[in-house]
Design a protein that fits this description.
The chain is α/β, with parallel strands linked by helices and 322 residues long. The chain contains eleven helices and ten strands. It has a seven-stranded mixed sheet with strand order 3-2-1-4-5-7-6, sandwiched between helices. A three-stranded mixed sheet has the order 8-9-10, with no helix packed on it. α1 crosses α11 and α3 packs across α5. The protein is globular and about 55 Å long.
Length: 322
Amino acid sequence: MSREKYRVVDLFCGAGGFSRGFHDSGVFVTVLGIDNQPSVAKTFKYNFPESIVIAEDIKSIDSSIIKRVAGKPDVIIGSPPCEPFTGSNPRRMRDPLDRLYVDPIGRLTLEFIRIVGDIEPEVWVMENVPAIMEDGLKDALEKEFARAGYREIYFNVLKAEDYCTPSKRTRVFISNIKLDPPRCDKKITVLEAFRGLPPPGDYPPNHEPPSMSQRKEKRIRRSRWGEALIYYEGYGGRRLPNLIRLDPRKIAPTVLGSSRFIHPFEDRFLTVREQARLMGYPDTHVFLGGRDEQYNMVGESVPPPLAKAIALKVHEHLLLME
């Protein structure tokens, strides 16, 4: 581990998309990742062997443990679960403030704030869906971060497709510094994202062909570019598409943990590796666990190209502080 690199702690680290971007910037090293799902923690450790990984519920982790294990990190990043806030969840609580203060999963956001307040890193960045700013939630978050010692915070809404990611994804990155990375010169299409990828098989990792029923295969054969095979109900009765046949000429729709896409030219679902390519993961980033767990890890992560753009912006700030 190079002492010349800035030290990062990744809370709710998932499979490591956020840390991957910081790692690929060349100036950061993630010294500690925390996630309560065993297969996810194993995936993170596999991809970042130099990191310490704690597979525990973050509520049970005292900040002193983080200080003892990771020292004084320069940066804390993290992605608390978005399910309590997203409009794609039909069961999210009606009162927006209840999503933060009553929903036990939503309250995990407060755990991120607790740890940031205790450790006082130079920079912190918390990722979530823009709906976490709705109807009084933004004010509530400002108050909670002020209690933790950060009275000036920024709600940076960024689109992954503006930062060399081949799929759409709008997220808010709440931080104590302004994040406005330079955008990519062009958009990357599905066709470009899949370029050079061999047919499904043993290589690269996570590229095994998923199984499907004959009935579903018949429906897939009849599907056209951009067409969804099913719709599901989100919050407030919103109809949301799934099982979409990708249009190779366009950017892919948002990749979610529950999303499955149909290959633009072949009558099959995408492999985990193909979904990972739509999020900008390198083929060397391996996902462990069951097949559904792997799809979820991909869809629930921060796209590495966007994370790298953020990391370089954070690096600029750290250089100015030296």
